[in-house]
Amino acid sequence: MSSQKQETFRRLAAPDIRARKGGEPLVCLTAYDAPTAEILDAHCDVLLVGDSVGMVVHGLPNTVGVTLEMMILHGQAVMRGSKRAMVVIDMPFGSYEGGKEQAYENCARVMKETGAQGVKLESGPTVAETIAYLVQRGIPVIGHVGLRPQAVLTDGAFKAKGKTDEERLRVLAEAEATADAGAFAVVVEGVAEQLARDITAAIDKPTIGIGASSACDGQILVVNDMLGMFDWTPKFVRRYADLRGEIGRAAAGYAEDVRARRFPAEVETYFSKKPATT
After folding, report:
1. Tens of pLDDT along 192-226?
2. β-strand 46-49 against 207-210: which pairing, if any?
């Protein structure tokens, strides 16, 4: 063994996140690769390997086509790049809806193969029982209510939720059932401020908002949206950078230098060693 002392880090875990209810807001972002995870790690409490990777990295039209293997691959990369933040993996469409046993088998596989500290499930009307089953067997779970991207084919589009009294009551009931089932936090997406406020007040677990106002106990954004990688982003996104523009300008400068034979210059070129003189 090496005699050099290894610096150790304790990652945040479900109890740490759960304890932030009503306290300092939780900072969460998505991450899909090791270099990005390394940069975000110092600033985030939770890094979510979101199934949004299908859209923002792989160019899919929605998240329905994301596979378990894709989530595991990206989860492994994020774990390699991070040290402190809790890493949570989205369970993709079709990996947990078929029953409690199917959900446990797939969630256990994800956690074993990635080393992540938890999983996230979209909390449809039948999912609370599955969440309870998973939590009882040692799998930390974040729920997800409101706008559920995996339900896009049923809804017909990405639509905000809670516009009618019936819908508000349904989303609130799903959030309460999710928390009661043992989820240590609940993502609340695409709902009006009052509904987000009602959910946050009604459950004893932290709410993490995305398009759900500052009434929540924390916030999450898709990192590619936050960094300005796309021409269009949803109303709830604030861009903190213009990486699309920066990358375009850098690529244009590179192309110009290559075509003008300014790159590579002498400083970027290897040369043979001069023969020794006698």
Report:
1. 999 999 999 999 999 999 999 999 999 999 999 99
2. unpaired
